[in-house]
Design brief:
By secondary structure, the protein is α/β, with parallel strands linked by helices. It is built from 8 helices and 9 strands. The protein has a 7-stranded mixed beta sheet with strand order 3-2-1-4-7-5-8, sandwiched between helices. A two-stranded parallel ribbon has the order 6-9. Helix 5 runs parallel beside helix 8 and helix 7 packs parallel to helix 8. The protein starts with a strand and ends with a helix.
Length: 241
């Protein structure tokens, strides 16, 4: 067992899953991977099972009953990883929007630079997004500005989904209270870490939109993020976070 594990939630990622796993396993730094699949009808889990024969000591799979949302998939993965004793626990998308090579930069920040939560940031040094329409870039960028104003948390990319946590962060946060599923989930995890006075750092990355498969973005996810930030701030003010 390695000390770091990458959690990759999947739903219909058959076009990407083998390539992303091989990319992670080819890195100089050795990471294990846990795929949390929401019973993808396209056979994503079956492909992972095939690859487990080749990577039996590094690749793990949890299959849930159905599509339950990104946030709950990560919480499921967090609990699994904590139970197995991993020290560094990562979030990463399956679609290559996050460059697997950047896992090593996030890892270094937590292992060597005394960071508790390393965030792969699209906006800490300008706007580093490839293949997104301008409307999507503006929505994402100003969502983080909005989060700054409401919460006081000085993070340039509050909705980032490429993250490394030290285990103690996830052990301290009450995972039972995590309810959001999309952008709001990513904001909530950062805000709860911030509220517990952990050290958060942004590591610049280049984000490239998927070229295979379909985006899971929806209006419901955007609405949840807008309202969820206000809810989080109120809970903190009332000491109920």
């Amino acid at each position: 067992m390695n000390d770091g594990i990458v959690i990759i939630p999947t739903y219909n990622e058959i076009e990407n899953i083998e390539d992303i796993l091989r990319a992670v396993f080819s890195l100089h730094t050795r990471f294990d991977v846990l795929v949390v699949d929401d019973n993808s009808p396209d056979g994503t889990a079956n492909k992972v099972k095939e690859l487990q024969k080749e990577f039996s000591d590094r690749l793990y799979l949890e299959v849930r009953g159905g599509k339950e949302g990104l946030g709950t998939a990560y919480v499921h993965g967090f609990r699994w990883a904590i139970g197995k004793g991993y020290d560094y626990i990562f979030e990463m998308d399956a679609d290559f929007s996050h460059n697997p090579k950047d896992l090593e930069h996030l890892y270094k920040a937590c292992v060597h630079d005394n960071v508790d939560m390393a965030i792969g940031s699209r906006y800490s040094k300008g706007v580093n997004v490839v293949n997104w329409p301008l409307s999507r870039v503006l929505l994402s960028y100003y969502a983080s500005v909005y989060v700054k104003i409401v919460t006081g948390m000085q993070i340039h990319d509050a909705t980032a989904g490429f993250v490394c946590y030290k285990r103690k962060v996830l052990e301290t946060i009450n995972l039972d209270k995590i309810k959001f599923v999309g952008y709001a989930f990513q904001i909530e995890m950062k805000y709860r870490a911030f509220a517990n006075k952990f050290k958060l750092a942004e590591i610049p990355i280049i984000f490239t939109d998927r070229t295979k498969g379909e985006s899971k973005m929806s209006n419901a996810i955007i609405k949840e993020a807008i309202l969820g930030v206000i809810t989080l701030r109120i809970k903190k003010m009332l000491n109920k976070l």
